Amino acid sequence: MSRRLPAKHVLMVFLASLLAPAVAAAEPGDAARGRKIYEQAECTQCHGLSGRGDGPVGLSLEKIDKSPGDWSNPAEAFKLDTDKDGQTGTRHDLRNVIVRGALVFGGSQMMGPTPGLSDDDLDDLVAFIGSLAAN
Question: How far apart (Å, rounded) are the C-alpha atoms in residues 59 and 65?
Answer without folding.
Answer: 10
